[in-house]
Amino acid sequence: MAQAQSLNKTLADFQAKRALTMPADKLKINVDQRRLLVDTADRSAFVKAGDTVQPFNLTEVDAGPLSLAGLVNGPLVLIFFRFASCPACNIALPHYNQYLAPELRRLGATLVGVSPQVPEKLRDIKDRHQLDFQIATDADNSLGRRFGILYSFDEPSRRLSAESGSPIGQVTGTGTWELPMPTAIVIDRSSTVRFADVSPDWLVRTEPADIIAAVQAITTRAAA
To answer: How many domains does the chain have?
Structure first.
């Protein structure tokens, strides 16, 4: 596998270039919303290592229903992202496809990207980037809510979204202002969380190396 380039450096470069062309008022709303989330997120509610994951169901955009019981036949990695047309997600998911997914397959782990967006809309990001890991809908944000990783648009972001003619609830098909914060969770065969990383700023994502290290720790314990 090729050595991973820094995902967060790529995202930072993207934002720096976008800041040169984005209208100042829209850029301010974007920056202010991300800063607000960083400053006010309830980190005590975030999923954390040691938590037991109760049964859940997701809907994979091509394969249909997925369940926790059917996924934890080895380490399970869940990557929560916002929606199919999110610019940062369109950087992060192809990066994971190239630098994370192959190593997880070698380790016998399962990788699932998770968004609240409805399957017929969510399929777009899987097809566009030819992702070879599963992409699934978390209906009604139920699993994201359980993991304590949801946020809601602030008022300026709601106005901007509505003025675009496609408010986020219409984009996702959920009809709400809620989205998950970017999150990486590693779960072992006992349904115990062994690694969790939640980023209130959607332009900061978990690096593949950190996820791989968490999965390797599980497989090393199992081998021992």
So the answer is: 1
